Amino acid sequence: MSMSGSTTAQRVVRKTTAAPIEHPIRTEGEYNAIVAEMDALLDADHEKGTSGYDRLELLSVLVEAYEAEHEPEPDLPSPQAVVRFMAEQRGVTAGDLALLMGGRSRLSEFMNGKRSLSLGQIRMLREELGIPADLLIT
Fold first, then answer.
1. Residues 51 and 57: beta-carbon distance below 8 Å
2. 42 FRET partner, CA 20 to 30 A, in 51, 57, 73, 83?
């Protein structure tokens, strides 16, 4: 089957007027400029599949990587502070905690930072005091 005439396939190329991305975000100034560009792209409400939408996706990946590298991790309380707080809130005494932890010496070593919690102790504190396990792991 042959086609008559001069039919040519056209390649669809998406164009953008924005500057090309040449490297990851390296400075706070670059970060601020890219965030401002993202705001403008969001305001324009580009549809999926458009060059504006693609640009927004690319910029968000760059911003995410920059923030992961440059923003400090949140300061979480120590496992000892969490146990003290939750014990106070629940009216659990030091004697009760010692029973949960396997004895006064283990409780003392943990509270003084000389000993980490065992998996069994983490489970017990989670069950008895409602402390999420991720707050008890150092």
1. no
2. 73
